[in-house]
Amino acid sequence: MKIATYNVNGVNGRLPVLLRWLSETQPDIACLQELKAPQEKFPEEAILEAGYEALWLGQKSWNGVAVLSKIGKPEVSRTSLPGDDSDDASRYLEVKVKDLIIACLYLPNGNPVPGPKFDYKMGWFERLDAHAEMLINSGKKVILAGDFNVMPTENDVYKPEKFKNDALFLPEIREAFHNLIGQGWTDAIRHLYPNETIYTFWDYFRNAYQRNAGMRIDHFLLSPEVLPQLKKAGVDTDVRGWEKSSDHGPVWIELK
């Protein structure tokens, strides 16, 4: 089974790229982030024609998450993180597919720092941490997948010194990520490739993709029940170079 996560950076504007990627790589399940489309504007028909059933949470202009599946329609478990009823941002969609619980998430960026956006990011992370602990203690097969907007280590960004004051790399956000991992989750990419330079995002500016000046901010975290099934993992870096592509590359894992 192949599962992917992809920040599409606008599902309608980049629909040809998304459909081409789905056709060429054929993931069984795909988690999408940053749809940037209201609920009624999600391209369900085109996704169905591509062979995928979908669940999605849209939001006008911003955010938005979706789970696509060609192995059975996902069943909704949650459409938001618990802990803040006032948070109406479409950033978290938890579904069940077969025997897997998959949480598709789009963690806030948090810039500029300091400020309310970073405070919101830290609060969101605290709620994720609390809910993730419940999930991992359930003993079920759980996958947390998506754009975490966190570079966990210096090995996950091309020039760490340039990002020491960035919300994606501040010590407290990296500590929050490592605390999450400490619950018992496994970072799939780093489990298989502990020392390699692997990026999932390249800015549109300064020829970042051409220079491989990237960041690793899109992650798969696996519960102990899923880890023994992990077979392969990687990033479709070539997709980032396609015309009118997202600034992220799709990340994927294969399970036995």
TrEMBL record:
GO molecular function: double-stranded DNA 3'-5' DNA exonuclease activity
Organism whose genome encodes this protein: Kaistella pullorum
Domain of life (superkingdom): Bacteria
UniProt EC number: 3.1.11.2
SUPFAM superfamilies in UniProt: DNase I-like
Ranges of residues in domain Endonuclease/exonuclease/phosphatase: 4-248
Needed co-factor(s): Mn(2+); Mg(2+)
Protein name (database record): Exodeoxyribonuclease III
Pfam families for the chain: Exo_endo_phos
Gene name of this polypeptide: xth
Keywords on record: Hydrolase, Magnesium, Metal-binding
Family note: Belongs to the DNA repair enzymes AP/ExoA family.
Keyword Membrane: no
